[in-house]
Design a protein that fits this description.
Blueprint (H helix, E strand, L loop, with lengths): L35 H51 L7 H10 L3 H9 L1 H10 L3 E13 L5 E12 L5 E16 L3 E10 L1
Helix pairs in contact: 2-4
Organism: Mycolicibacterium gadium
Main location: membrane
Protein name: Mammalian cell entry protein
Length: 194
C-alpha cells in the first residue's frame, strides 16, 4: 500500500477530513455550527445586567425612604420634647427656662427670641406655673433646605396654688425643625395658628 491516495478530480473531499489510518477513505462530515448557545449566553448576560440595575434602583429608593423615615421620627421626637418644655414655663426658674429655650433656637426664631428675651423673662416670672402637653404632632412638609415643618397641637393647663383650675386651652403651632450638624435638631421657626 502506498501512503498516497488518489482523489478524483471533481470530488469535494478534503484531504484533512480523511482518516489516514483507516484503510478506506471516508470523509468526516462536519456539523453546522449552532448559534443557540451564543444566543442563550447573550440573553442571560442582558437579563443579569437588567436585574442588577433594577435591584440597585430598588436599594437606592429604599435607602432614601429609610433616611426620610428616620429624619421624620427624629424631628417629631425633638419637636414633641421642645414643645412640652416650651409650653411649660416655670416662674420660679424663669432664667433657666429662657436659657434652655434659647439653646434650642436657630435662625429667625433665635433672633426673635433673643431680641425679646427680657420681656419673655418678665412675663414668665409673673405667670402662674403652667403645664403644657403635646396632644398630637405630625410632619406637615419637608423643605428643600432639609428642614421639616411639623404641625403640633398643644394644651396648656394653669392651676392656682390651691389646686383650682385657672385656665385650660389648646393651641396649634407650625414648628420648623432644622438639623444642624449630624444629629442636632433646632427650632428655626415657631408660628402659632389662629
Amino acid at each position: 500500500m502506498s501512503p498516497r491516495r488518489k482523489f478524483d478530480p471533481g470530488s469535494d473531499t478534503d484531504f484533512w477530513s480523511l482518516h489516514l489510518d483507516s484503510p478506506t477513505s471516508v470523509p468526516v462530515v462536519r456539523r453546522p455550527r449552532r448559534r443557540g448557545f451564543e444566543l442563550v449566553a447573550i440573553f442571560a448576560a442582558i437579563t443579569s445586567a437588567a436585574a442588577i440595575i433594577f435591584c440597585t434602583q430598588v436599594l437606592i429608593s429604599h435607602q432614601k425612604h429609610w433616611r426620610t423615615t428616620i429624619d421624620d421620627a427624629a424631628a417629631l421626637g425633638f419637636v414633641h420634647s421642645f414643645m412640652t418644655e416650651f409650653t411649660s414655663p416655670d416662674p420660679f426658674h424663669a432664667n433657666d427656662y429662657t436659657d434652655r429655650i434659647s439653646t434650642y433656637a436657630t435662625g429667625d426664631f433665635a433672633e426673635q427670641y433673643r431680641a425679646n428675651q427680657n420681656q419673655i423673662l418678665v412675663e414668665v416670672a409673673r405667670a402662674e406655673p403652667t403645664t403644657g402637653t403635646v396632644l398630637d404632632a405630625g410632619v406637615s412638609r419637608r423643605n428643600d433646605d432639609g428642614s421639616i415643618d411639623v404641625l403640633v397641637v398643644t394644651k396648656f393647663t394653669s392651676q392656682a396654688p390651691d389646686g383650682t383650675l385657672l385656665a385650660e386651652r389648646a393651641n396649634r403651632w407650625v414648628v420648623t425643625a432644622t438639623k444642624e450638624g449630624d444629629r442636632q435638631w433646632k427650632i428655626s421657626s415657631l408660628i402659632p395658628m389662629m
